[in-house]
Design a protein that fits this description.
Rna Polymerase Sigma Factor, Chain: A, 9 helices, globular, 0% strand, sigma factor activity, 189 residues, single chain, DNA binding, Arc Repressor Mutant, subunit A, mainly alpha
């Protein structure tokens, strides 16, 4: 993750130390962690929800979860911001799922989105995986890489992707399916 998005005074190591202190229920460390990271995590949540009030509520729940799960953070597995961003993204996706109308759920490919029951450590097992994913995304045709990012980072539904990319819904479904298969193949190399 881009360190410039975080408070200038915090490094990956200092955030990891804060999380270690949070795991020991240090409220001052939790406050400092919040101050250093809330803008980044709010950006993730609000980019998906596109609603400030809902994003603020979800962000509170995200930090509650960070407080509760801080002891499971492992700096050997993921960077602090990656671990927290995963919690934020998964909680936000749960919110989208919860508030979707029953007839529109088919537009979102939830099977390909990380499940909140997975520990953040399991999702991003090593920072090398993130670098490999970026390389694999670069291997996709640019419109398809943009579509994958819009779907899985911004939380756009298939219908929203069809509108954005000015393609029929069937084409979007095919592109998503093929692009995910290509990414999976690339990640196994």
């Amino acid at each position: 993750m881009n360190q410039s998005l975080l408070s200038e005074q915090h490094t990956t190591e200092s955030l990891a130390n804060l999380l270690l202190r949070v795991a020991q229920e240090d409220r001052l460390a939790f406050s400092e962690l919040y101050d250093a990271t809330h803008r980044k995590l709010f950006g993730i949540v609000s980019r998906i929800l596109k609603n400030q009030a809902a994003s603020e509520e979800v962000l509170q729940e995200v930090y509650l979860k960070i407080w509760e799960k801080a002891e499971s953070f492992d700096a050997r597995v993921a960077s602090p911001i990656t671990w927290m961003a995963t919690i934020a993204r998964n909680r936000t996706i749960d919110e989208v799922r919860k508030n979707k109308l029953p007839d529109s759920e088919a537009d979102v490919d939830f099977d390909l989105i990380a499940d909140d029951s997975m520990a953040p450590d399991d999702i991003f097992t090593k920072s090398q995986d993130l670098l490999k994913l970026e390389t694999c995304l670069d291997g996709l045709e640019p419109p398809r890489a943009q579509m994958i990012k819009a779907a899985y980072l911004d939380g756009l539904s298939r219908q929203e992707l069809a509108e954005r990319f000015k393609q029929p819904l069937g084409t979007i479904k095919t592109w998503l399916h093929r692009s995910i298969k290509q990414l999976q193949g690339c990640m196994k190399l």
